[in-house]
Amino acid sequence: MKGDDADIRNSALGLLARREHSRKELVDKLMRRTRDLGQVESLLDQLHEQGLQSDSRFAESFVRSRVSRGQGPSRIQQDLRQRGVCQDIISRVMEEQDVDWYRVALEVRCKRFGMEKPVDRKAYAQQVRFLLYRGFSYDQVQEAIKVAQEDLEQC
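The chain above was modelled as a monomer; its predicted structure follows.
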């Protein structure tokens, strides 16, 4: 292995030691160190074969992290696509996650706006925009907002 190959491999392993990365993220970061895309692709193929890099593992970790931050399914899927994860993996990982998105939307709403229901159209629209931006579906947003105040004790 040439010195440059060893440097690139060590860089990749260092990145993967800190957290999971998608293949696209690693390509982007490693291309800053070399101009040889073939070299990077070859290295990433080796790391994948050795089980050191996996887009599936990255997606699972990413989804858990984003759910704990209070992001909804649409936003999470969009972010995974931007990181180069293929739609098949995204769909599988999202289905495997045992997440009650309605509950997450309710918790996010309660954390941001408290237990009170919106008092007017402006407050209602603000809550809808906020939850939609976070990646929840319109149905999830509507459910989170309409929950009666006495049902919000779980907030």
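The first helix runs from residue 3 to 18.
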